[in-house]
Structure formats: structure tokens, C-alpha cells
Write a structure and sequence with these properties.
Blueprint lengths: L1 E3 L3 H11 L10 E3 L9 E4 L12 H6 L4 E4 L9 E3 L3 H13 L6 E5 L4 H12 L5 E2 L10 H6 L8 E5 L7 H9 L3 E4 L13 H13 L6 E5 L3 H4 L6 E6 L6 E7 L4 E5 L2 E2 L7 H16 L4 H9 L9 E5 L2 E6 L5 H12 L7 E6 L8 H13 L4 E6 L3 H10 L3 E5 L2 H11 L5 E5 L7 H8 L2
Parallel strand pairs: 2-3, 3-4, 4-5, 6-8, 6-9, 7-8, 9-10, 10-11, 11-12, 16-20, 17-18, 17-20, 18-19
Antiparallel strand pairs: 1-2, 12-13, 13-14, 15-16
Helix pairs in contact: 4-9, 4-10, 6-7, 11-12, 12-13, 14-15
């Protein structure tokens, strides 16, 4: 991961104040991956679970790094900043840097939909204002601090995404970016392996709204009981399928049509799914509160392209593939399958599922639950891949559903080449580590 520093002159002054002894060092970017280092980069040697960046300091210097941040004593031809923890250095360094930015900040977190919500919100806001943001999901305690150095200082607002895989990370990230507005999309069992319960996840996410200033705005999803009960000093703007909400969203799905309305007005959405409708409702609430007109909002929504791997519809060779491969947890898998089954309902629906990770000691139980959910559906041809997903296949087979389990991607690809026929609707889902997108490339579109 590497970022190009956007405000280079301001950064040079910033460096001179913090590290005056290195005033002659020129800096153009910051990298934590030695392979991506460019001339005049700061190389931060992070000590990770799999790779220790300190081993690659020589390579970083050889590629042109002008400064190294290290926990170890190292001999090299460029200046070295010694720190007790390079990870903590990155967060503190970014926090000091971000203090020079003064625009309103929208913080977004949640179990599902946060990246799509962020991308859609930016797309809408950009029609009337300048926005600082990072594409993709720079939302971790490494990615988000790094991304701050790549943002312009003279913008009307910043939209930043926060993720968590361990307790305390939302608190760390919220204190880092100091949001003036916040939204939690939803709270579901994602990364629950690292939390004791769903309530523990809710407490983690709640920090975003709790830390907001009294003159800030908390956008509250009333459809999620864990969110609606969060106490915050900020102004509350509510949305949901609830008549008491400030922004009331209704999703209606029939065999032939899908209708989504907000406060009684029909809204076009990029994907005709309830999940996309919920993301759109959050974006509408934020955008309208910030002063955008209804017309500006719906025009931008109608021109939005969904980020890759998050429910994209790909049509090729007479078949339709729904690429939902970016990640998976039980709730997002259920929602995705429901969406797939409403697409061209008279055609065959092939559902390809991989394992869901980071579900802790209840991993098998969650896969069992998903299997029971799928077994109640009809017109599904289920293909599973992995270890835990075999439980899904067994449950569906025992209920008379067409189901096949595979232990390799090669075998599932070979099966698909013989099984697919024109008109099929194919839905693909799995956790990031399963790399389910390669099945789309190798078995469906090869």
C-alpha cells in the first residue's frame, strides 16, 4: 500500500516542524510496501502478522526511499526515525497531520454496505461540492491513516469509511478523523470471531456516534434496533421503514417490478435490491440534510455504478452473473440470495457460495442457519466451495434441493462449463479469503 502526498508543500512544512533535523529530506509519498516504493517516499516498516516490513528496508532504500521509520536499529544510507511501534507511529503521525484539515467530516461504518454507501454518497455530493475521499476500502487502522495524506485540504467536505476487526478500532479511527457527522449502516455478525457477541459489535460501532460533537449530526437507522438505541449528544436525523423517521423509505418488490420511495417520492436505485435501497436511503438522508435538492440527489443516484464485487450485474454470452464476491457474512449472503431470486424469476438460478470467515466459535452454526434459509427457496441450483459451506450443501440436499459441493475451484469450474446454459442467473458470494471472483473468470466467463 502506497499513497502519494497531495499537499506536498504543506507536508514539507509539517515535517520541518515535527522533525527539524530532517529539513533537507524531500518527501513525495508514504509506503508500507517495499515493492511499491518510489523516489522520495517515507517507508514505514510495519511489523505484521505475516510479514515484517523491517526485512525489506534495504529494498525500499534501493528503490529510492528518502526516510525510514523503524522499530529496530538499522544501518542504511538514509535517515531513520526510531519508534517503539511503527503502527502507533502511523496513527499518531496521521492524527497530527489531519489536525490541519478543517472541513466537515462524514464518518461511515457498519457491518455491511459501508463502502457502497460511501461511494454513492461521494457520487451524489460531488455534483454540488468538492469532496475529499479515497476510492476502495481504506478503512482499517492502517489504510485510513495512510489515506489522509492523499487528500486535498481545500474541500467542502470529507467522506471517510471506518472498518473494524478488533475491539477498540472504531474508537481509534474516530479519534483520528474527528467526524462531525456519522452513520452506521447496520450491525450484523461480521468479524464476530474477534468479539464476544453481537452486542459487543454494536458497542464497538456505537463509538462513532457517541464521540460526535454536540453540534454534529448522527444519522440513525431506525430499522436496526442496535443502532436506534445508541445515545449521542449530536443532533439525530433518522431514517428507515418507520413512520416516525425523518426520511421514510419503503421498498416494495413484486414479481414484475420493484418500487422504492422516500417520503412518498419514487427513487431510482442502481440495483433493484432491498440492500441497495437501504444504502440509498442513508445517502439520501445525509445529502438532503446537507442541503442538496431532491432533483440533484436522484439525478446522481441514477448515474451511479456499483463498486466491483458488491452486487454488480454482468451480462455476457446469454447469461447473467451477479458478482457479490467482495466479502460475506450471514446477513449479506441472505440479502444477496433474495436479490438474485428476484432477477428474471422464470430463469434458472445458480447460487455459488464459498465459506464465510471470522464468525468465531459459531461458524458452523451460521453456515447451518444459511443452509436452512436456502432450503426454503425454490428454483435454486446450489454449488458450494470450501470447508464450512459443505454444511450448507448437506442441508439443502437433504431437503431435496439440487446441491453439489466442491473442494477445489478447478472442479467447480469444470462443472460450470458443462452445466451453464443460456438464460441462467448466477449469483456468486463468499468471504474475501475464498477469492470467489476467480470462479467468475475461470468457470463462467473463461
Amino acid at each position: 500500500m502506497r499513497v502519494e502526498i497531495h499537499e506536498k508543500v504543506m507536508f514539507q512544512s509539517f515535517m520541518n516542524q515535527i522533525y527539524p533535523e530532517y529539513y533537507q529530506v524531500q518527501v513525495g509519498g508514504i509506503s508500507i510496501d517495499s515493492r511499491l516504493v518510489q523516489a522520495n517516499d517515507i517507508f514505514i516498516a510495519l511489523n505484521g502478522d505475516r510479514v515484517d516490513g523491517h526485512q525489506f528496508i534495504p529494498q525500499a532504500v534501493e528503490l529510492g526511499a528518502s526516510l525510514v521509520v523503524s522499530e529496530d536499529e538499522v544501518e542504511t544510507s538514509v535517515p531513520v526515525i526510531r519508534v517503539p511501534s511503527t503502527h502507533e507511529f502511523l496513527i499518531d503521525f496521521a492524527q497530527n497531520w489531519w489536525k490541519q484539515y478543517s472541513m466537515p467530516v462524514v464518518g461511515i461504518t457498519g457491518s455491511n454496505g459501508k463502502t457502497t454507501t460511501k461511494e454513492l454518497l461521494v457520487h451524489v455530493l460531488k455534483s454540488v461540492m468538492s469532496v475529499a475521499w479515497m476510492p476502495g476500502n481504506f478503512n482499517s487502522t492502517i489504510g485510513l491513516p495512510l489515506s489522509l495524506f492523499a487528500l486535498p485540504v481545500s474541500t467542502d467536505a470529507a467522506v471517510l469509511e471506518m472498518g473494524t476487526s478488533a475491539p477498540g478500532e472504531i474508537n481509534t479511527l474516530t479519534n483520528l478523523i474527528r467526524p462531525t457527522m456519522g452513520v452506521i449502516t447496520n450491525i450484523h455478525p461480521a468479524h464476530i470471531e474477534f468479539f464476544s457477541s453481537l452486542d459487543h459489535i454494536a458497542q464497538e460501532k456505537a463509538d462513532l456516534l457517541i464521540i460526535l460533537p454536540s453540534d454534529g449530526i448522527a444519522f440513525i437507522n431506525l430499522d436496526d434496533p442496535s443502532i436506534r438505541s445508541i445515545q449521542t449528544d449530536a443532533k439525530r436525523v433518522t431514517y428507515g421503514n418507520d413512520d416516525s423517521a425523518d426520511y421514510i423509505g419503503y421498498w416494495q418488490s413484486t414479481v414484475n417490478d420493484h418500487i422504492f420511495t422516500i417520503n412518498g417520492r419514487e427513487i431510482p436505485i442502481p440495483l433493484n435490491s432491498e440492500t441497495m435501497a437501504k444504502n440509498t436511503l442513508a445517502v439520501y438522508a445525509i445529502s438532503h440534510t446537507l442541503g442538496l435538492s431532491h432533483e440533484d440527489i436522484i439525478h446522481q443516484i441514477s448515474t451511479f455504478t456499483v463498486p466491483k464485487g458488491r452486487g454488480n450485474i454482468i451480462e455476457k454470452n446469454g447469461i447473467t452473473v451477479i458478482d457479490d464476491t467482495y466479502n460475506a457474512n450471514p446477513e449479506s449472503a441472505k440479502a444477496g440470495i433474495e436479490f438474485a431470486l428476484t432477477t428474471n424469476q422464470n430463469q434458472r438460478h445458480i447460487v455459488i457460495l464459498g465459506d464465510m470467515f471470522e464468525l468465531g466459535t459459531d461458524t458452523l452454526e451460521y453456515h447451518t442457519e444459511l443452509g436452512k434459509f436456502i432450503s426454503t427457496k425454490s428454483n435454486i441450483f446450489l454449488l458450494t466451495y470450501g470447508n464450512y459451506s459443505e454444511k450448507i450443501s448437506d442441508i439443502c440436499s437433504s431437503c431435496g434441493l439440487f446441491s453439489r459441493h466442491f473442494t477445489t475451484q478447478e472442479s467447480i469450474n469444470l462443472f460450470l462449463k458443462q452445466f451453464i446454459r443460456t438464460g441462467d442467473i448466477i449469483y456468486v458470494k463468499g468471504s474475501r479469503g475464498m477469492k470467489m471472483e476467480t470462479i467468475i473468470k475461470g468457470g463462467i466467463f473463461s
